[in-house]
Amino acid sequence: MPWTGARDRGRAAIGAAIAAVCIFAVLLARAEFSVWVLLAGLVAVALAWLWPSASSREDRREGKPPATPPLLPSASVFPDPVILVDRRLVVTGANEAARAILPGLKERQPLAFALRSPEILDAIPAVAASGEPARVEVPGRSGHEQTWEVRIRRLASGGATTLGEPAVALFFRDLTDHRRLETMRVDFIANVSHELRTPLASLSGFIDTLKGPARDDPKARERFLDIMQVQAQRMTRLIDDLLQLSRVELKEHVPPTSLVDLGQTVAHMVEVMAPLARERGVELALDLPAEPILILGDRDELLRLVENLVENAIKYGGPGKAVEIVVGRSSAAGSEGERVELSVRDHGPGIPPEHLPRLTERFYRVDVAESRTQGGTGLGLAIVKHIVGRHRGRLAIESTPGQGATFRALFPPAP
Prior knowledge:
Layout: H1 6-28, H2 31-61, H3 73-76, E1 82-85, E2 91-94, H4 96-101, H5 118-130, E3 134-138, E4 148-154, E5 168-174, H6 176-211, H7 218-251, E6 259-261, H8 262-280, E7 283-287, E8 294-296, H9 299-317, E9 322-332, E10 337-346, H10 368-373, H11 380-390, E11 394-399, E12 405-411
Parallel strand pairs: 7-9
Antiparallel strand pairs: 1-2, 1-5, 3-4, 4-5, 6-8, 9-10, 10-12, 11-12
Helix pairs in contact: 1-2, 6-7, 7-11, 8-9, 9-11
């Protein structure tokens, strides 16, 4: 009868050693003494041979479960959760990752005590019986729960195992990030399609009108051409913002290495935005330090960041009010230490607090109609967030309804 564990193999080895000693003694000792030595050795070998099977029968007679083989070494080092169960759906082994996601998981207890998923529990017996692998996806019931893909496989001996021995393996894979990215992709495509459809529909309608009823009407033709130009510019801005956002995202993991004077960069962009400010009746108040403020940055991206922040302040600050732009150094609380700060403050209607966490999402708008009236694409602050992230900085937004809003971009100073 085969041995069932390391302890039994050790006893068998001792028996074999006793037998070898006895045989050696027979060859050296007198004949009449050799017979007794040989008989004693044979008895020792027999006891060593029969003891494992006797102990196993005793365990079975007392109702003890048979010894469970340890978890497969390859499964114990899996980064993803792995669980082994027998044909009764009793857990026979699990790695640390599985115990982390299922704290109630215990060996020699039913899997249902720790895992409340009817889809998985129903699939295990079918896999154990047929040998056909199965795949089950368990979506999170709320936005804070994880989505798991569970692949169920029968082990090589799963079809003929006894009770208590592993028959089926469950391999878990976390799909939460994958599903979140898929949702973002679908939403992004839907938003882009919507943003392009409106100006394209206007252009198509006015082209048909110009080719038909307004063909010989100079006043109508001029008015329609002006509207078509505005819609074409809107599409151009949207495409430019999409390309800019794509370029920043592609390079976001690579920090810039060029020295840039942030004060000079901001001053240049404020000068460029001055005509728009005069047109809207807004005063630009710029406060720069006397000495250069150097950071490691990409000048073109920083110019785009300042342009988006100042343009938003001009558009939503309201006519007759000032937009305050300040560049300086600040001592941030906590572990950040000294930071170079760019702040842009307007005195407009402000932003309700429930909108602040989502302002940097793509195509998110507090007021959709007002944003489109102002010519916004809904991507400006998303671009700002990614530019600040690439420069290893932090974007902070502060606003009180009725008292305007302040946007702060905090950057690490150049070494």
